[in-house]
Amino acid sequence: MARKETGAPVTGPENNGNEKKSRAGTCPSGFYIYIGPNIKKYIQTGTIYRGTRAHALKQAAEAIKAYPLVKTLIVSGDALPEARLKVKAPGNALYANYMKLKLAGKEGK
After folding, report:
1. For residue 73, what is the DSSP state?
2. How far apart are the C-alpha atoms of 65 and 93, rounded to whole Å?
3. What is the pLDDT along the chain (109 residues), one digit of tens a residue?
4. Which alpha helices (DSSP H) does the chain contain, by range?
5. Angle 80-88/93-107 helices, nearest 10 degrees?
């Protein structure tokens, strides 16, 4: 028999209260990481930002101002395993943005 969705909080065995609760703009892992290439004077591969995405973008503001594609390569800790693979595989936006930044960084913009 189908269940009716009421929008009320679930109680009982389906919701035991142990699930991680995420706040708006945060991921359950609580950090964001830059997976793009090193860009001298601006940002380094693997830079970790704790807190919300807005906080991460604020801390990387100088790099984003100089290289707007940096913003697309700051990913949540939850998306990191998949994003690291995508950045290395041709045919997706993460790879394309990585390559554009790599060329721009070498040219010194």
Report:
1. G
2. 20
3. 555 555 544 444 444 444 444 445 557 888 999 999 999 999 999 999 999 999 999 999 999 999 999 999 999 999 999 999 999 999 999 999 999 999 987 777 5
4. 53-59, 61-66, 80-88, 93-107
5. 70
Whole-number Å distance between alpha carbons of 82 and 73: 12
Residue whose C-alpha is closest to residue 63's, from 87, 80, 47: 47
Residue corresponding to tokens 């690291």:
84
By C-alpha distance, which of 20, 40, 45, 39 is closest to 30?
A: 20
Count, residues in the chain:
109
